């Protein structure tokens, strides 16, 4: 497995932050995910560890005991430098429906003028690309999706909205994402996803993981409304495709 120059520093009493080179690259994210698998398979017997990957970092949190930073830092460096075989990791693509009606895409017209693209062109570009889940945070189930076409890059809004609707699909810089609940937010909203991204009542509240792929596809308002009903009664199934490793 490829190794990078990593840095390790304390991140509170119960956690440590491991950082890879400060670049947004799928190869770095894959290296982090492979290291996590190695830690789980060969290094951690204690189930009290929580491992949180994002972009070019990995946060290790022990839920109960304070961490002896100096000793554990050396151990982590040894584990990372050890000769490791790459572990098979199932790669998933989630296809998520989005309604781009102007009722939902409240910034579509503004972005169209800003980018010099028609609204139809924006929707086409947004839906024909596959995005990588580089992190989940800010809100439970909020995915930071990288890989957006350069022509769709727009800055965050200068003044965040006090309330962004649950399911809103937004653009900000080099990223796109879905608001999993009503929330303040400064991303440019172009549509709404009919699939709930986070459900605390489920055993796995968020079905997507860091490292997965996401692709959007457009739906009409009637299909959006149907998905909402199916979701409420628990019969909607998200489309999942297993990709070649």
Automatic annotation (TrEMBL):
Domain Carboxyltransferase per the UniProt entry, residue ranges: 6-208
Record field: transmembrane: none
PANTHER family reported in the protein's UniProt record: 5-OXOPROLINASE SUBUNIT B
SUPFAM superfamilies xrefs: Cyclophilin-like (SSF50891), PH0987 N-terminal domain-like (SSF160467)
Name the record gives this protein: Sensor histidine kinase inhibitor, KipI family
Native organism: Pricia antarctica
InterPro entries referenced in this protein's UniProt entry, alphabetically: CT_C_D (IPR003833), Cyclophilin-like_dom_sf (IPR029000), PxpB (IPR010016)
A Pfam family it matches: CT_C_D
Keywords assigned by UniProt, alphabetized: ATP-binding, Hydrolase, Nucleotide-binding
One example GO MF annotation: hydrolase activity
């Amino acid at each position: 497995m490829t190794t990078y120059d990593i840095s390790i520093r304390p991140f509170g009493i119960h956690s440590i932050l491991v950082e890879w080179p400060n670049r947004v690259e799928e190869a770095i994210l894959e290296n982090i995910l492979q290291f996590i698998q190695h830690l789980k398979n060969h290094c951690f017997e204690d189930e009290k560890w929580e491992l949180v990957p994002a972009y070019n970092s990995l946060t290790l949190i022990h839920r109960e005991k304070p961490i002896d930073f100096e000793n554990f830092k050396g151990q982590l460096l040894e584990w990372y430098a050890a000769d490791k075989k790459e572990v098979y990791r199932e790669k998933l693509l989630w296809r998520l429906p989005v309604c781009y009606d102007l009722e939902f895409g409240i910034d579509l017209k503004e972005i169209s003028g800003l980018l010099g693209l028609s609204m139809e062109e924006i929707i086409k570009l947004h839906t024909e690309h596959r995005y990588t889940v580089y992190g989940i945070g800010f809100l439970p189930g909020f995915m930071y999706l990288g890989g957006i076409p350069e022509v769709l890059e727009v800055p965050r809004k200068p003044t965040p909205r006090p309330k962004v609707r649950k399911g809103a699909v937004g653009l900000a810089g080099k990223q796109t994402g879905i608001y999993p609940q009503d929330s303040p937010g400064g991303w440019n909203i172009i549509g709404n996803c009919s699939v709930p991204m986070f459900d605390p009542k489920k055993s796995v509240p968020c079905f997507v993981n860091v490292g997965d792929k996401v692709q959007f596809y457009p739906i009409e308002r009637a299909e959006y409304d149907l998905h909402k009903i199916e979701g409420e009664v628990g019969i909607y199934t998200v489309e999942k495709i297993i990709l070649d490793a």
